[in-house]
Design brief:
This protein has 425 residues and is of the alpha/beta class. 37% of the residues lie in helices and 13% in strands. It has 17 helices and 12 strands. Strands 1-7-6-5-4-2-3 form a 7-stranded mixed sheet, with helices on both faces. A 5-stranded mixed sheet has the order 8-9-12-11-10.
Length: 425
C-alpha cells in the first residue's frame, strides 16, 4: 500500500480480506497447521515453500501485523518478537556472533544498555559505547575490524535526545556496517529512519504502537537496502551455506529478504521469542489509531512542556519541540510534525523533591511503562536505570533529578492541573 498516506496505512495495511473473508484481521489461535501431503510439509521445513506449520516460526495473524508495520516504516520485510528487548537482541545477534563487536550510542534505554554492555559480552560479543552527539571523527574511533553494526535510538529513552540519523548512517556505511535504529518513541508516524539512511529499524510495540498497555511485543524491520554480499566476509551467516538448512545461502536464495528470513528460520526456530497471535491481534487494534493518537500525544506534550518551562517549581525541561531545546533543530529536520509525548524534566530541590511530587500526583500514575494513552511518570535513576552505575547513569544522560513524564491523551488542562498541585508544597 505504498501509494497511501500514513493514516490510511495504519488502518488498511497488512491484511486485505478476500471475497467472503472476515473484514477484521482474525486471530489464528493455533499452534500448528494441517497439511494433507508429507512431501509439502517437508518442503516447508527446507524453506522450499512458503506457508505455515508451527506458530513459533510464523503465524498468519502475526505476519499480517508485521506486514502493516513494515509498510508504515517503508521497509522490505519484518518480523514480530515477544518484546522490544527481544527485537533489539535479535537485530544484533542475527549478524553478530561470538568474536564480533558492535558500536552503540550511550544514551539508550537502560535495559538495552545492560543487554549490550553486559549480557551479550557473556556471549562473546563486545560493545563500545559512544556519544552520538560527538563529531564523526570521535565516534569512528570506536570501530574495530570485527565491528558488525552501529545502534542508536531516534528519540532516546528517557532523555528525549534526537539522533542525527544521516550522520550516524554515513559513519556506519563508511565502515561497511548497517545502522540499526530503535524508532519506538517517534514511531513511523513522526519519523521514518529508512528515508535518512538507516538500514534496520526496531520497535518496542508495547509502547505507542499498542498504546493501551495491553500487550508486550517488539518488531524488527529490514529496509532491504544493506548489501550483505558486498561485505560477505563480515556476514558469513548470511552469505555462506547454513548447514542447519541443507546448505542454503540466504542472500542467494532470498535476496533482499535474506536478513528477516534468516532471523525467522534460524533465530526464532532456536530461541523462540514469538508473540502470541492474541498479542499480535491486540497490537493491530492499537495500530489502527496510531496516527490519531500520536497527533494528540504531541499536541498535549507540547503544551505541558511549555507550562513546565515557565513554572518556578521546575529546574529544567527537555522536550525537542521547545524552541531553544538542544535538539530543536534536529527535531525540525527529522520530525517536523512532532516528536512524541515524552518529556524529561527536573524539579527544584533535586531528587527528593522530584520523588515527593511524583507521590502527590492524583491522575498520573507511577509506572514502569511509557508511551501509553494514560499519563504516567517514572524516576529512571530509581527505577528503569537503577541497575546502572553512577558513571553509566551520566553516560546514559540520566540525571538524578530526571523525571520521565509520558503525556497521555487526556484533556491537557487536567494533566497540567495535576502536575501543578503535585509540585506545590
Amino acid at each position: 500500500m505504498s501509494d497511501y498516506r500514513i493514516n490510511t496505512k495504519c488502518v488498511q495495511s497488512g491484511y486485505r480480506p478476500k471475497n467472503g473473508e472476515p473484514h477484521v484481521l482474525p486471530i489464528y489461535q493455533s499452534t500448528t497447521f494441517n497439511y494433507t501431503s508429507s512431501d509439502f510439509m517437508g518442503r516447508l521445513f527446507d524453506l522450499e515453500e512458503s506457508g505455515y506449520f508451527y506458530t513459533r516460526l510464523a503465524n498468519p495473524t502475526n505476519d499480517s501485523v508485521a506486514a502493516k508495520i513494515c509498510d508504515l516504516e517503508g521497509g522490505y520485510a519484518a518480523m514480530l518478537t515477544s518484546s522490544g528487548q527481544a527485537a533489539n537482541f535479535y537485530a544484533i545477534f542475527n549478524i553478530c556472533e561470538a568474536g564480533g563487536h558492535i558500536v552503540s550510542a550511550t544514551n539508550i534505554y537502560g535495559g538495552t544498555y545492560n543487554l549490550f554492555g553486559h549480557t551479550i559480552e557473556k556471549m562473546g560479543i563486545g560493545c563500545t559505547f559512544v556519544n552520538p552527539d560527538d563529531p564523526a571523527s570521535e565516534i569512528e574511533k570506536a570501530f574495530q575490524d570485527n565491528t558488525r553494526a552501529l545502534f542508536a535510538e531516534t528519540l532516546t529513552n528517557p532523555a528525549v535526545s534526537v539522533l542525527d540519523i544521516e550522520k550516524l548512517a554515513k559513519i556506519a556505511h563508511d565502515h561497511g556496517v548497517p545502522l540499526i535504529v530503535d524508532n519506538t518513541f517517534a514511531t513511523p508516524v513522526n519519523c521514518r529512519p529508512f528515508e535518512w539512511g538507516a538500514d534496520i529499524v526496531t520497535h518496542s510495540t508495547t509502547k505507542y504502537m499498542d498504546g493501551h498497555a495491553l500487550q508486550v511485543g517488539g518488531v524488527v524491520v529490514d529496509s532491504g537496502n544493506f548489501d550483505w554480499e558486498k561485505y560477505g566476509d563480515k556476514y558469513p551467516m548470511l552469505t555462506t551455506p547454513d548447514e542447519t538448512y541443507h546448505g542454503i545461502v540466504y542472500t542467494k536464495k532470498f535476496g533482499k529478504g535474506a536478513y528477516i528470513t534468516k532471523m525467522t528460520a534460524q533465530l526464532m526456530r532456536d530461541l523462540g521469542s514469538i508473540p502470541s497471535p492474541m498479542n499480535a491481534f491486540l497490537l493491530n487494534v492499537g495500530l489502527d489509531t496510531l496516527a490519531l493518537r500520536m497527533e494528540r500525544h504531541c499536541e498535549n506534550a507540547q503544551k505541558v512542556a511549555e507550562y513546565l518551562s515557565t513554572s518556578d517549581k521546575v529546574a529544567w525541561v527537555r522536550y525537542p519541540g521547545l524552541p531553544g531545546d538542544k535538539y530543536y533543530e534536529l527535531a525540525q529536520k527529522y520530525m517536523p510534525n512532532g516528536t512524541c509525548g515524552v518529556i524529561a524534566f527536573g524539579i527544584k530541590g533535586g531528587r527528593d523533591a522530584c520523588v515527593r511530587a511524583m507521590d502527590k500526583l492524583k491522575m498520573a500514575g507511577i509506572c514502569t511503562h511509557v508511551a501509553d494513552a494514560r499519563t504516567m511518570v517514572l524516576h529512571p535513576a530509581s527505577h528503569t536505570h537503577r541497575q546502572l552505575s553512577e558513571q553509566e547513569l551520566v553516560e546514559a544522560g540520566v540525571a538524578p533529578d530526571l523525571i520521565r513524564l509520558s503525556v497521555g491523551i487526556e484533556d491537557v488542562e487536567d494533566i497540567i492541573a495535576d502536575l501543578e498541585q503535585a509540585m506545590n508544597d
